[in-house]
Design a protein that fits this description.
about 325 residues, mainly alpha, globular
Length: about 325
């Protein structure tokens, strides 16, 4: 009995160290991306003028007549790509140098994983659709109560073919890839050896809150749960990168089609969504065990202790607090 207790204490210590290391990396990514978003205009000023300034007044004067450019999809998507690439590069570099952690093992390319990605696209689309519908009723209720609920706007401003290309690059390629590396790759790798259930929960929770607004947070939590289970089942993030990218493509396809002038785009998109929904419901009813029976670990006191240890980790709590404060701040700002 003493040996068992000793082993449990050792396991909890290893789990705590792993979660702490993970949380430090997540905080680094969060803070660096925020920092870079603040100085991005300074970088643009230097690139565009060949001069360096630290004066906010100079910056305001220079960009005062360039508001149309600043609000354009090309500029915004370029900023998002640069900030995301730099932030994740810094985080992965710290992970490699400080914690000897890499994500390359998460990119196992197997035929099973790729086919699973395409197969479970439809159920994930259905789950996202249902979650979004429920949240829309909730946000509609809040709007009626006079509360303005902010959400992300991915509509294409100053439409052009290049704007579509940049939007496609970020929303369909870069965002799914990097988000899967962080929220399925790093998180599942750090926590799943100790508790698959805790890993899936933390992955879904952080993925939801990361979006920074209530509607996306709620729907992303639901889809994040499915993505995490699929990544665990396939031992790879390749399937979820596929699902994530195609799901974003479906969501943005009306804007793409309208800018590119594709005829009957509404009818075609609706037909695709109906087919996906029918196939998705069929898979839900016939293969639901694939999702809901993902954790084959015996449910004993040790696993419960690990789950509690993960959620009580102080550094993880700090990271979650930063995400929650971001959601609250944006909600307050939208209603001020």
């Amino acid at each position: 009995m003493e040996t068992t207790r000793s082993e449990q204490v050792s396991l909890l210590k290893k789990c705590s160290r792993s979660v702490s290391s993970l949380s430090i990396l997540l905080i680094i990514y969060f803070l660096f991306s925020r920092f870079l978003s603040k100085i991005y205009l300074y970088i643009c000023y230097t690139v565009m003028t060949g001069k360096i300034t630290l004066s906010l007044d100079v910056l305001k004067d220079y960009f005062s007549d360039k508001q149309e450019m600043l609000s354009s999809t090309v500029f915004q998507m370029t900023a998002d790509i640069v900030i995301t690439v730099c932030s994740i590069s810094v985080m992965l570099l710290v992970a490699r140098l400080a914690f000897k952690t890499t994500v390359w093992s998460c990119f196992k390319v197997e035929k099973k994983g790729i086919t699973t990605g395409f197969k479970w696209l439809a159920p994930c689309f259905v789950f996202n659709m249902l979650a979004s519908t429920v949240i829309s009723f909730f946000t509609g209720f809040l709007n009626q109560m006079g509360v303005d609920v902010p959400t992300a706007d991915f509509s294409i401003r100053q439409p052009s073919v290049f704007a579509v290309i940049m939007q496609f690059a970020y929303v369909i390629i870069f965002a799914p890839l990097f988000e899967e590396i962080i929220y399925r790759g790093l998180i599942l790798k750090a926590i799943s050896p100790y508790s698959k259930t805790a890993a899936v929960f933390v992955s879904a929770l952080t993925f939801g809150l990361m979006h920074g607004n209530i509607p996306q947070a709620a729907s992303a939590f639901c889809t994040g749960f499915l993505y995490a289970v699929i990544a665990l089942r396939c031992n790879s993030i390749i399937p979820t990168v596929i699902i994530h990218g195609i799901n974003n493509l479906i969501v943005c396809s009306p804007d793409f089609a309208e800018v590119l002038g594709i005829p009957y785009n509404g009818t075609m998109i609706s037909a695709i969504e109906i087919c996906l929904a029918l196939f998705g419901f069929f898979l839900w009813f016939t293969q639901y065990k694939f999702i809901f029976c993902f954790d084959d670990t015996p449910k004993d006191e040790q696993n419960k202790a690990v789950f509690r240890a993960v959620l009580k980790n102080p550094i993880l709590i700090v990271y979650l607090s930063l995400l929650i404060l971001t959601v609250v701040f944006r909600l307050i700002k939208a209603n001020s």
